[in-house]
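Hi support team,

I'm filing this because I wasn't sure whether my run with zinc ion finished correctly. The job status page said complete, but I'd like someone to confirm that the output block is well-formed before I use it downstream. Pasting the exact inputs I used:
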Amino acid sequence: MVREFPRVRGDAAENGALMPPKNPTVRQSDADETLKCGDCGLSFVFTRGEQAFFEEMGFKRPRRCRECRQALRELARPRVS
Ligand SMILES: [Zn+2]
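And here is everything the job wrote out:
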């Protein structure tokens, strides 16, 4: 399996040399992917940052858009009121 993006955690990140900028405008939009939600059928953006996060966590690519994922999450974990 080929990892196309470098990991930012580790020595470099700890040294503060390669800390990724928090500013979202710096995001490399050309690395973003547009995926289609398997639930509602809408296309949604799977950003480079999300890709890195999913890879880091060992998750597969999402099949649902953020809203559908959030809806599922709320179903799975009812609010405590
Ligand atoms: Zn959806």
